[in-house]
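writing this on my phone so excuse typos. first protein, seq and then structure
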Amino acid sequence: MNSINSTIELISWNVNGLRACRKKTFDSFVDEKSPDLLCLQEVKLNDQVIPKDEFGYSFRHYHLADKKGYSGTAIFSKTEPLSVREDLPDEKHNGEGRVITFEFDGFYLVNVYVPNSKGNLSRLPYRYDSWDPDLKNYLIELRDSKSVILCGDLNVAHQEIDLANPKTNRMSAGFTDKEREGLSNLLAEGFIDTYRHLYPEKTGAYSWWSYRAGARARNVGWRIDYFLVSDDLATSIRGASIHSEVEGSDHCPVGLSLNRA
């Protein structure tokens, strides 16, 4: 990516419906921050309602679910990528618009919206036995040729520090042992949780809050939105941020600053 700036600025945001979020804070936030790369999850669009707006980005790619108004991801970039891929290699994961990969000169950017295990944990076996290992293997395959940046809503709080009430949520979707193990397995393969890399002991740092019981106002939240990088980028990590002041969704944006190679 060519720029006079010394850093690459990235932001990831589960907007929980792009059209709804645009009625609130989305446009003003993007205009103010104007990151080099903006990754969105849960855009909840269909082909008939994709925004014509450029948002200041010359290249925009939406990957939508077959089911209208469900899931979906997008990446906005100021630089055209070398290539674009959708989904994971195994076709059994297709149809929900959950993964986009942009290739640039020095790295792959993978934007992902990981499936929720659901309140009754009915989707936990799919998540644990299939999705998590297939995502891990895909990222390892990419890393064999270039550095990798993974971002998105991973739908898991990794450690007890990553949610306000760990003891009462041990059997809740997003904090089961199996979901946490899936993320641990990925980190064990040489990927870094950039926020915890810089702030290993910071508490109260959350990116999602329930709409119930005034959870956000009381900061009773979960950190389930991440930037992970392959460990060869460890020395390039300049900053990691959680924009908890930004409303418009039940998630807030998270950011990453990387020194350019």
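second protein below, same order as before
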Amino acid sequence: MASDHQNKEEGRIPSESSVSFGFRRVSEAEKRKLVDEHFGSIATKYDWMNTVLSFGLHYLWKRIAVRMSGIKAGDVVLDVCGGTADLALLAADLVSTTGRVFVYDINRTMMRVGQAKVAASHLSERVRFVQGDAERISFPDGSFDAVVVGFGIRNFVHLQEGLKEMHRVLKRGGSFTCLEFSRPDPAWFRALYHFYSFVIMPLAGSILAGTRKAYTYLPESIRLFPLPDELSTMLQDIGFSKIIYKRLTNGIAVVHRAEKG
């Protein structure tokens, strides 16, 4: 039997290749476990910490993303990695009484936070929750008019597989909208953001959320995520069309929008 060393020497991939979890290389199974533990550990403070660390800007970014999605009355929408349901509630306001929004997330603790938030709103009849893996979405082909995902796809084990699944469940002509962190510009601002991400964020996570580890993983995962042009190419290769992106706050966050042709 060939060893891992021999596999590497001969250019073969071992039976379970390693993937990135921040700057660490781990097995696929370990990444799934670590991501689940990560969100389980911060779920109850997730929204509050997002507000503190983004100075409230994440609410603006989410409104821009949902507005760019083109969601309209009567649409059926899938909020992938929807967890605490911020995007779902914004979408539910647009689909009106004739539409529906499904929050799809693998982490039950995050969904419990979202369920409580939705239950306290006037939109609860329009929102449903489904637990599942975004790389194997448990809905038939062509089920949705729109798919939205906010700050979630960095955590996929296989990014392309998740993107293919979101393409699959869209109706022809349906929209895909992704809000994700990215590398900001110009260079001086990027250096300042780098210091904030790798020094201030972990310190704040330790003091305010009781976990330095979770807020060390966050900036590391951002640094490894594809840049906007690279993600646009991936979307095109999968079969999306009319691909555009919009940088927000000097590129700290980016909204990608595309359609299923």
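Residues 187-209 form the longest helix (23 residues). thats all i got for now
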